[in-house]
Amino acid sequence: MIPEIGHYALALGLCVALVQAIVPMVGAHRNNLALMELARPASVALFLTIGVAFAALTHSFIVSDFSVSNVFQNSHTDKPLLYKISGVWGNHEGSLLLWILILAVFSLAVALFGRNLPPQLRARALAMQAMITVGFLLFILFTSNPFERIDPAPLNGRGLNPLLQDPGLAFHPPMLYLGYVGFSMAFSFAIAALIEGRVDAAWARWVRPWTLVAWVFLTLGIALGSWWAYYELGWGGWWYWDPVENASFIPWLSGTALLHSAIVVEKRDTLKSWTILLAIITFSLSLLGTFLVRSGVLTSVHAFATDPTRGVFILLLLAITVVGSLSLYAWRAPQLKSGGVFSPISREGSLLLNNVLLSTASATVLLGTLYPLFADVLNLGKVSVGPPFFNAVFVPLMVPMILVMAVGPMLAWKRGDAYGAARRLWLALVAAAGVFVATYILAGGSWIDVGAAFGMGIGAWLLLGTLVEWAERVHLFRASPTTTIKRAAGLPRAAYGMTLAHAGTAILVMGVVGNTAWKTESIQVMAPGDVVEIGGVSYLFEGAERVEGPNYQAIQGRFHLRDGDGGLIATMEPEKRRYSDPPMATSEAAIQTDGVTDFYAVIGDPSPEDGPGAYVTRFYHEPFVPFLWYGTLLMGLGGIVSLTDRRHRVGAPTRSRSRVAAPGAPAEAAATPHAR
Amino acid sequence: MTRKKQRLYFIGLGMLALGGATALVLTAIGDNLLYFYSPTDLTEREVAPGQRFRLGGLVEEGSVDKDGETIRFVVTDMVHTVPVTYTGILPDLFREGQGVVTEGQLDMNGLFTAASVLAKHDENYMPPEVADALKKSGHWEEGVAGAEAAAKAPGNAEPSSH
To answer: Which residues in chain A have their CB less than 8 angstroms from residue B66's CB?
Structure first.
C-alpha cells in the first residue's frame, strides 16, 4: 500500500508542478498578483507530494519490502540501517527521486524565504523551477519508476554493492546533488531576469547565496567522492581525471566562475549578460554531468551498470534546456544595460581574468571528457583521453589564476594600483621564493623537482598573499592591537569567507603538487616476519588471519609500522573482504596519518608458492594527502561563513538594519523575521 | 577607459583565452590519446611494439596464472586472444570470464605488458568498448553482463571463482 501511495504522490506532484510552471508565468505576464502568488502554495504542495513519495520509498527500504523491485535489487535484510537508508539513493531510480526532492526543497526555500523578492521575479523563478521539476518527474514516471512491484515477492534482496556500503559514499550523492540542483536556482533566476529584461544589484544579491549554497555542497561532495576513492579503492589515488569525476568538476569550475562574476554584478552593476550566460551554462553542465554518469556512454573506472535508453531521455531534457535558454538569451540579453567601465588593472579586471581562466579550464576539461564520444561518432576509432592530457591543459591555466588570485583582492574597484599592491605583497613574494628554494633543496635538487618546487612556491604565494590581504584590512601591526581587534570584528563575514576559501585553495594546491611529485609505492610478496622500507618508515608483516564481519568474510593482515629509528608508530590491519550479497570482493586499506603524510597499506591475494603465509602486499607513501582534505574543508567553511554575511542572509537582507537599530525589541524582530 | 576600449579589452582577453586553450589542447591531445583495440583489431592492424594503448575483452576461463605479484592471463574476444602480463594487485572485481580493460604496450613477441588494469565498481558492468568488440566478433549473447545478472537471481547464488 505504501509504495502505491508514493507512486500516486509522484503523479500528483506532476500535476502540481504543471500548474506551478504555467499559472505564475501567465500571472507575471499579465501582472495579475493573484495568479503570481499561486506559486508559493504550489511550491509547498509540490514539496509535500515529493516528500511523501521519498518517505514512502525510504520506508520500503527500512522495512525491507522486497515486493518493491528497487528494494529487492539494492537492499538486503542483513544490511546495517545506515546502508538501508543510503540504499534509497544508491541506485538510479532512487537517486533521481532524491534529485527531484532537492529541487522541491530549493523551490520551497524561495517560497518561504523570498517574501521580499519582487513578486514578478519570484513568480517567474518558481515557475522555471517547476518546469525543471516537470521534466524530471516525467523522466522518473515513464522510464524509472522506483515503486515498481514484483510478484511473487522474493524472500531476500540482492544487497547493495559493497563498495557503496561506506559512510563516505552514503553522503556523497546527496551532497553532489545538492550542488548540481542548487545551480538550478541561479538558472531559474537567470531565466526570470531575461524574461523581465532587467538585471540589477538586487538580483545578484539574491542569486549569490543560492549559488554559494550549491558551490559549498558541490565542493564538499567532490571532496567526499575523492576521499572515498582514495581509501576505498585501495589504489591510493584521489583523482584520475575520469569521466565521472570530470562530470562533477566541470560544473564546479563554471560555478566558481559564476560565484565571482555575481560579485561584480552586485557591487559594480556590470558583467551582467556574462553572468546570466554563466548561470545558464553552469546548470546545463550539471545536467550534462547527470547524463554522463547515468547513461554510461563513457568508459569510466567508476562506472556502474546503466541503461542507455534512459540516457536518451536526459539528453533530450538537456537539449531542451540548453537550446531553449540560449535562444532566450540570444533574444533578450542585448537589452540588458551594461554598467560602469573599469580598467584592466582593477578588482573587476582580476575577477574577469578569473572568469576567463575558469571557463576556459571548464571548456577544455569538457572537451577532453567528450572527445572519445565525438571520435566514436565520427568513426575515428575508439580512444580514451587520459590524465596526461588533462594535466597538460589544466595546469597551465591554473598557474596564472593562482598567481593573480593573491593580487586581485588587493586591487580597488574600477581602477587599481598594481604598484601599491605589489609593494604590499613583497613579504608574500619573498616567502614564496623561500619556499621554492627550500623545497628544491630538500627534495634533492634534481631538475624534476623544479616543477614541484614551483608548485609549492605558488601555493605559499597564495596562502601568504591571502593572509597579507587580511592583515592589511585589519591594520595588523600598523595600528594599536585594540584597533586591530575592532577592525577584525568589524570585517564583513563575506571577507572572512574569501580569506578562508582562498587559503583553502592554497593548501589544496600544495597538497596536489606535493602528493603528485613525491608519492611512492612498493609492491611485493611478503612472508610473515618480512620487512619493507619505504618513505623513511618500515612495515613488518606479522601475518594474516581470517575474520568474520556482519555480512562479509575477510583476510586481515597485521603490519607493524615503525619510524626510521625503529619506534613503533602503529599496528595496521588492512583487509581483503568477500561479501556474500552480492558476491563481491573489496579491499579495505589501512591508513595511518601524522597530519602531513599518510602511510597506506593494502593486502592482496595469498601467494603460497612463495612460502607459508605469504601474501602480495602493497604500500604507498602518500605525502601531503591530508592537505587535500584540509584545503577543501577550508574552502567549504569559507563558503558557509560567507553565507552568514548579513547582506546575504537568506530571508531578510533589507531588514537587518532595522533589527540592529531596535535592540530593545529583539523578541518582536525574531518573531517576524520574514514579515514584509 | 572608454566603453569602446573596454570592449576591445574584453574581446582581446577572450581571443587570448580561446587561442591559448586551442594551442594547449592541440599540443596535448596528439600525444595523449589512447586507442582501444580488441584482440581481433590487433590481428587486422599493425601496432608497433612500445606504443601505448588499451586492450579489452574477456578474461579467458582458466588462463589466470599468479606468480607472486606477477599475474599472467589471456584476453579474448572469442575469436582471437592476446597474452597479458601484469605486476601488481588486481582490482577486486577482476575475474575469469568477465570483461576487462587493460592499458599498456606490446613487446616484440606479442606479449601485452599491462601498466594498469582498470577497476570496476559493479560486477554487472561491461565496458562499452568490450561490449562492442564482442558484438563485432559475433559473441555477444544477449549481453554477457545480462547472463551474469541472471545467474545472480535469488536461490541461484553464483559460485565463487576463487
So the answer is: 605, 607
pLDDT tens-digit series, residues A50-60:
999 999 999 99
Q: Mark yes or no for CB contact B87/A523 under 8 Å.
A: yes
Mean pLDDT by runs of 10 across the 676 residues of chain A is 92 96 93 91 96 95 90 84 87 89 93 86 93 93 88 80 77 89 94 89 87 94 91 81 89 95 87 91 91 69 59 83 93 80 84 92 92 82 84 92 90 82 85 88 76 91 92 83 86 91 96 92 90 91 90 91 90 90 82 93 85 89 95 96 76 40 37 37
CB atoms A386 and B119 under 8 Å: no
Label the pairing between strands B53-59 and B65-67: unpaired
CA of B109, closest CA in chain A: separation in Å? 24
Residues ≥6 apart with Cβ < 8 Å to A357: A397, A398, A400, A401, B17
Residue A477, φ and ψ in degrees, nearest 5:
65, -5
* C-alpha span between B82 and B94 (Å, rounded): 17
Q: Model confidence over A314-358: pLDDT tens digits? A: 788 889 999 999 999 999 888 887 777 787 888 888 899 999 999
Mutate to test the interface with B, among A73, A301, A377, A401 (most CBs of B within 10 A): A301
Per CB-CB distance under 8 Å, the chain A contacts of B120 are 301, 303
pTM score > 0.80 for this model?
yes
Cα pseudo-dihedral A376, A378, A383, A385, rounded to 10 = -100
Which residues on chain B are in Cβ contact (under 8 Å) with A232?
none
B102-106 contacts: CB < 8 A, separation 24 or more? B102/B54, B102/B55, B102/B56, B102/B75, B103/B34, B103/B52, B103/B53, B103/B54, B103/B55, B104/B52, B104/B53, B104/B55, B105/B49, B105/B50, B105/B51, B105/B52, B105/B53, B106/B42, B106/B47, B106/B49, B106/B50, B106/B51
Q: Where are the domains of chain B?
A: 1-33, 36-150
B33 at A interface, C-beta within 8 A: yes
Q: What is the ipTM of this complex?
A: 0.74
- A536: phi > 0 → left, psi -120 to 50 → alpha, else beta; which? left
Q: Does B126 touch chain A (CB under 8 A)?
A: yes
Residue A176 cell numbers, joined: 553532489
Structure confidence by residue, pLDDT tens digits, B85-109: 998 777 777 888 888 888 899 988 8
A635-657: b (≥16 Cβ within 10 Å) or e: bbbbbbbbbebeebbbebbebee
Pairing of strands B53-59, B33-37: parallel
Quick one: pLDDT at residue A116? 80
B88 in contact with A, Cβ within 8 Å: yes
Nearest residue, CB atoms, A356 vs list B13, B31, B90: B13
Q: Mind telling me how many Å the CA of B44 is from chain A's nearest CA?
A: 14
Taking contacts as CB-CB distances below 8 angstroms, the residues of chain A near B145 are 305
Sheet with A520-526, strands from edge to edge, namely: A520-526, A615-623, A597-606, A590-593
Interchain pair B118, A301: CB under 8 A = yes
Q: How far is CA B124 from the centre of its chain?
A: 16
CB contact under 8 A, B68 and A586: no
The reply to whether B108 touches chain A by the CB within 8 Å rule is no
Q: What share of chain A is helix, strand, coil (3-state, %, to 5)?
A: 65, 10, 25
Q: Which residue in B has a C-alpha nearest to residue A394's C-alpha?
A: B24
Q: Which CATH superfamily is domain B36-150 in?
A: Nucleic acid-binding proteins (2.40.50.140)
